[in-house]
Amino acid sequence: MIPSTFAEAVSTPRIDLERAALLYAREIAYPDLQPGPYLEQLDDLAGQARMRLDGDAPAEQAEALGLFLFGAMGFQGNVDAYFDPANSYLNQVLEHRLGIPITLSVVYGAVAARLGLRVYGVGLPGHFIVGIDAGPATAYFDPFHGGIRRSRAECERLVAQATGFTGPFDDRWLLPMTERAILTRMLNNLVGAHSRRQEWPQAIGAAERLQVVDPDEPGHLRDLGLLLGQDHQYRRACEVLEGYVHLSPAPADAALVRRRIVEIKSMLARLN
């Protein structure tokens, strides 16, 4: 059965990443969205790309795919409005051909998979790229910067530029990310993007879906409670934050959370 909700989409062992991303977009911000046309657009991009792939080697095909998507098709990194929430909604990325590293990588990976290329997401600290199993070695490509190929040394520089980190590079950062982990990172980005604009209902929607896709992380419960407080949903905020403290009785931020509960209860008392 084809999933019709985000919860259904992430409850299966093998998550359809693009469909799940479109479903969270519908549930959080675009209620009239139908996934079908956007999935067909990815099919169409793959059909066009198939005629342009050069060479038989997977790395050469991946490079040609980058030239197609980020050249002929006009996909590009949204440098001018990097923190726009639209960059984290796959439907908007496909419509406007603008995105951030992770959503552009999802588009690249979706098209690559339709072409039979074994591409996977690579969640470097502060930046997202894709890797491809290219025989004896792995090749890395950077969709946000036009799909160019990246060496390991360049991946190190990307991390340093994005985060200021100057320590030794951890090779585990180059390991494939699961679809669940990618969705978690996308939704975390969305919480931040909507929060910057004080768009609390949408930030809350993203935080609720973080709990669905990553239920073992108690920090999502804390963040949801804090967002509910920002949206003046004081009773529910107290319930959620008290649930977090009960779930994690000795978290590092316990004092901050308990202080926030007291503040919210004080606000509730003034309303009664």
Explain this structure.
With 272 residues, the protein is of the alpha+beta class. It has two domains: 169 residues, Roll (C8orf32 fold), CATH 3.10.620; 93 residues, Serine Threonine Protein Phosphatase 5, Tetratricopeptide repeat (Alpha Horseshoe), CATH 1.25.40.10. The chain contains twelve helices and six strands. The strands form two sheets. The protein has a four-stranded antiparallel beta sheet with strand order 3-4-5-6, sandwiched between helices. Strands 1-2 form a two-stranded parallel sheet. Helix 3 packs across helix 6, helix 10 runs antiparallel to helix 11 and helix 11 packs antiparallel against helix 12. The longest helix is centred in the C-terminal third of the chain and has 18 residues. The model has no long low-confidence stretch (mean pLDDT 94).
